[in-house]
């Protein structure tokens, strides 16, 4: 078999021929076997300028460069490439453009693609160990691979979005993720949760895109709402069930449960039952499947009137998101609000008063059917990505990983 046959068999290095080949067994150059392949440029060949792409026949100079390639026959493979610079009339001295090697790359494009694909399912540490590369080299390759693969996000024809925050680091440091909920695509990720933090997204969206936006699903975040209204005054705000009910659990159920535990402080048995009922009261009724948990819940509600009221009103509050017609939903809200205000339970009355200004955003669910449950799933995936990398210090790379995890469903 000739060297040119070997070149074609290995996938080809266009514009080059094989010179010398050396193989070193394990122990000679390290723990793994190594193959060194010298690549010589073909003569009498017009070269392409890497600056402007025009064909050039004048050579400026030539230098050697060591390049890593995919392993050959289970041996770590190095290419000694005689790299040419052309004398381009337009650009001056420029490296020759090669289809299999980037301008300043120290690994071939096929090795970079293999590293990028493996990084989709494994941590940087394990990929680096597999290819015998440094952690920083793998991270740099994967970042460039993701940027080229994803490209700029397509914000045309976006009519609805959902936004939510997630913890990026300890110490109350947050970032914001914005998605198109219908196709499950992450559109933008940025550090922070203030108005200034999400403003770059609306700049990317542009004036026409802002005018096209019809609805935005979010939690009751005043900064998000103010920025949306500043750029997209016609867009309706849709408040999410998950966050409203979670707020109800913190501000009403937890408060009433603690107050009731203090009220029966002299009765140790009753106090212990009430204090240990937090998760039982906060869980969805449909998720309480064990018989003994249901018995405990019913016994608790039978024995304590205030806990029974706030628990029943929690379940009724969730029903507001089941209505399809705004008028019926509004009647249900007025009925819920009346019962809450007549309850004489101050944490519940206070919550009802605070919730009243947000009712239009709750009832908007009837028209758009949006929610941020997808964002809760994205947040869980983000936690997995952080654990795989033991934390990210490079925001740009971290946000590219998030976008890659949710590329969207083709329309």
TrEMBL record:
Sequence intervals crossing the membrane: none
Domain Transposase IS204/IS1001/IS1096/IS1165 DDE: residue ranges: 161-402
Pfam family, one: Zn_ribbon_ISL3
Domain of life: Bacteria
Domain Transposase IS204/IS1001/IS1096/IS1165 helix-turn-helix stretches: 96-145
Coiled-coil annotated residue ranges, if any: none
Occurrences of domain Transposase IS204/IS1001/IS1096/IS1165 zinc-finger (ranges): 46-91
Record's protein name: ISL3 family transposase
């Amino acid at each position: 078999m000739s060297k040119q046959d070997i070149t074609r068999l290995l996938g080809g290095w266009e514009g080059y021929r094989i010179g010398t080949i050396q193989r070193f067994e394990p122990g000679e150059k390290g723990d793994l076997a190594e193959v060194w392949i010298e690549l010589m440029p073909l003569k009498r060949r017009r070269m392409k300028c890497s600056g402007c792409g025009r064909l050039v026949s004048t050579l400026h100079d030539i230098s050697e460069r060591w390049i890593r390639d995919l392993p050959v026959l289970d041996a770590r493979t190095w290419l000694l490439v005689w790299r040419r610079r052309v004398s381009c009339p337009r650009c001056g001295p420029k490296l020759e453009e090669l289809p299999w090697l980037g301008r300043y790359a120290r690994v071939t494009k096929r090795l970079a693609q293999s590293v990028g694909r493996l990084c989709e399912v494994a941590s940087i540490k394990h990929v680096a160990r597999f290819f015998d590369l440094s952690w920083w080299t793998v991270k740099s390759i994967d970042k460039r691979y993701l940027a080229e693969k994803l490209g700029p996000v397509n914000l045309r024809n976006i009519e609805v979005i959902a936004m939510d925050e997630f913890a990026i680091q300890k110490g109350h440091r947050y970032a914001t993720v914005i998605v198109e909920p219908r196709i499950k695509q992450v559109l933008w990720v940025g550090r922070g949760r203030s108005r200034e933090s999400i403003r770059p997204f609306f700049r990317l969206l542009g004036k026409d895109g802002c005018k096209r936006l019809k609805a935005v699903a979010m939690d009751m975040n005043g900064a998000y709402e103010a920025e949306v209204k500043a750029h997209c005054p016609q867009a309706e705000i849709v408040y999410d069930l998950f966050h409203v009910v979670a707020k109800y659990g913190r501000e009403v159920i937890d408060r009433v449960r603690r107050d009731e535990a203090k009220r029966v402080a002299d009765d140790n048995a009753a106090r212990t039952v009430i204090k240990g009922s937090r998760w039982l009261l906060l869980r969805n009724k449909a998720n309480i499947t064990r018989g003994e948990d249901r018995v405990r819940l019913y016994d608790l509600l039978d024995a304590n009137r205030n806990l029974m009221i706030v628990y029943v009103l929690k379940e009724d509050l969730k029903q507001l998101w089941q209505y399809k017609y705004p008028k019926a939903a509004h009647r249900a809200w007025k009925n819920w609000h009346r019962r809450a205000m007549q309850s004489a339970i101050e944490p519940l009355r206070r919550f009802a008063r605070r919730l009243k200004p947000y009712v239009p955003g709750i009832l908007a669910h009837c028209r758009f059917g949006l929610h941020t449950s997808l964002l809760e799933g994205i947040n869980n995936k983000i936690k997995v990505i952080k654990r795989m990398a033991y934390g990210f210090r490079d925001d740009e790379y971290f946000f590219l990983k998030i976008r890659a995890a949710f590329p969207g469903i083709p329309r």
